TrEMBL record:
Identification of the protein by name: ETS domain-containing protein
Gene Ontology MF terms: DNA-binding transcription factor activity, RNA polymerase II-specific; sequence-specific DNA binding
Protein family according to the UniProt entry: Belongs to the ETS family.
Domain called ETS: residue spans: 31-110
Cellular component terms (Gene Ontology): nucleus
Keywords for this protein: DNA-binding, Nucleus, Transcription, Transcription regulation
PANTHER family documented for this protein: ETS (PTHR11849), ETS TRANSLOCATION VARIANT 3-LIKE PROTEIN (PTHR11849:SF306)
Biological process per Gene Ontology, one example term: cell differentiation
Compartment annotation: Nucleus
Amino acid sequence: MGSVSSSYWTRAVLFPDWAYKPAWSPGSRQVQLWHFLLELLGRGEGGAIGWAGEWGEFVIRDPERLARMWGERKGKPHMNYDKLSRALRYYYNKRILHKTKGKRFTYKFNFNKLILVNYPTFPSVHMPSQTHALQGQPPYLSVPPPMGPSQSDLSRLTSVNATLHFPPALSGWPVNMGRSFSIYHPTPHMAAEEGEERRGEGKRIN
DNA sequence: TTCGGAATGG
DNA sequence: CCATTCCGAA
């Protein structure tokens, strides 16, 4: 895993390996639902799902179609919105998502908790082109610049990441490359939302 | 429609 | 852990 050094410099510099759970490599972990949603949203898929009003808000325009797409990805032919939405609801506790009440099929990502870092920066190519800047400009956080000389303190890194930094214009989302974007989600207990401070646990059955 | 418990599986 | 499946309740 320490083979490529010059590529993915941001990654190499700022984060330790463990922070990059291979999201969906062939033999690795499966795609998570929110990966999938972000993927569709990112490429402005438009039909089944799209960004809504607020930052991180999205609306599912065609629930059953979205469910079919999701089912196809996961090899679950009997997927439907009822089940998909249950998975979405589990995200409430994990604080990845919450519901925008009053608006049908509308949810909102908690980007406080969900921090996306790094997409494949190619060593050879110099930023192909900034062809299209999508409106509804989304949720990508780029990796901040500064790297102290001596740092093995990971918790510090986390807070550095938490500093939002909006990339001027990124060419797009890492979706086309498939298998190589990374997603990192720490669990800091900073930035309490209004009206909700729930620990991820609190329930343990068995 | 939306919510969340419960059982189950990979 | 992360859904999937099923389902009763609000």
